[in-house]
Amino acid sequence: VLFTDLTACNKFTGSLELAKKVAVETLVLIGQQDQMTAPVKALEVANAIPTCRVQTLSPCGHAMLSEQPNAVLDALTTII
Description:
The protein has 80 residues and is an alpha+beta fold. 46% of the residues lie in helices and 15% in strands.
């Protein structure tokens, strides 16, 4: 099941077009060492969102809530 899910995620190509339609203030958190979602790809999507702010967490991978819970909380409190 996990392999099928990951394969579907990797094949999805509509991210940039959908991101352009986001009409609310947005925060994108990027894990600098993320191996599931390459930081450069996350940044591409973030840059397509008109009202986006980006914050990169390091050292941090894909499981940022486990790896950097306080940094995630600090980032989220800036937008909510």
